[in-house]
Amino acid sequence: MTTTENSVVYMDNNATTMVAPEVIEAMMPYLTDYYGNPSSMHTFGGQVGDAVKTARKEVSQLLGCDAEEVTFTSCGTESDSTALLAALRAAPEKRHIVTTRVEHPAIKNLCENISSFTGHKYRVTRLKVSDEGLLDLDDYAKALTEDTAIVSVMWANNETGVVFPIEEMARMAKNRGILFHTDAVQAVGKIPINLKELDIDYLSLSGHKLHAPKGVGVLYVKKGTPYVPFMSGGHQEDGRRGGTENVASIIALGRACRLAGEMMEEENTRVRRLRDKLEDGLLSSIPRSLLNGNKENRLPNTSNISFEFVEGEAILLHMNRYNICASSGSACTSGSLEPSHVLRAMGVPFTAAHGSIRFSLSTYNTEQEIDFVLGKMPQIIADLREMSPFWPGE
Ligand code: PLP
Question: How far does residue 184's CA lie from ligand 1's centre (Å)?
Fold first, then answer.
């Protein structure tokens, strides 16, 4: 991607990512020549079945698990729902869920409406986070009870990039005989994961966050862990998920996982350096700008910065004039003036939470793009502050 005034400077990779050219190349034959059904008896279908098998292996290698523990789904949200509901059905006598206040709506809203899915009332403990978005393991230990059916905690936060101590949390749940799910949609491909060494029972991931297309995900279920399909149907996915496989996207996800494994070092060095350059540049050149989230325990690609006394959506509109894409933590388009539940849980003051912008990079971002954004942002914020009746001046 280039950085002329007419091209897109894409810094919204936690929302979705560009499909990698190698991934498109790998999936295309399965939209054109190899269109057979992987369940068919003939060789034509069998070839497709073999390709799905390879993709499953590639996913398992990135996760450090067995291929049989990988079930393809339609998205991260489906994986999250499947895991949670399977765990609750496995322990019908238990009526308590432990989660956090900063989960993605895929888990947050499911927990809020859990009785409509299960027909039972559940007590839900939502762990609080510190002003830097971190969890307190003592609070967590106290939240686990005899009645807890499942813990569901995201590996990395989509808004701030803050990474939770999932290894330790899974171990603590295991010691209490409690099932553990992690929504790793933002973590997979960005930080190393080796499920063989961990006590995680269920893990969700989503293809479109790691340079595969939208509409494909994975649910990892540890061997021996209780499992109930989310929907009933054919024998696909070893009976774990009925429905003819989304073959081309599955092949794409396999290739994307292979690429992610190969590029992990790069993500952790080059992308981190670009992110830090962007972050340091913005914080030092724009007065009253603040970092949201712990600086150390964080994904290498994410930076969430509040620009006090300006509205996030107004900032985005001005950025959009230069084709700079990012996200805002405020939610005015939804008709509410409430800032994001994540920033609220962290206690970010109102004047800062409203002006938060999430920059999320990928391996396709360039130094030139960082310089371009650093060149534009101070003026954008200064112009908006000039118009703001709330801006008290520097
Ligand atoms: N969980 C997290 C942490 C996410 O960031 C997202 C997407 O933004 C999801 C779940 C949902 O994934 P999908 O869009 O594949 O349903």
Answer: 9
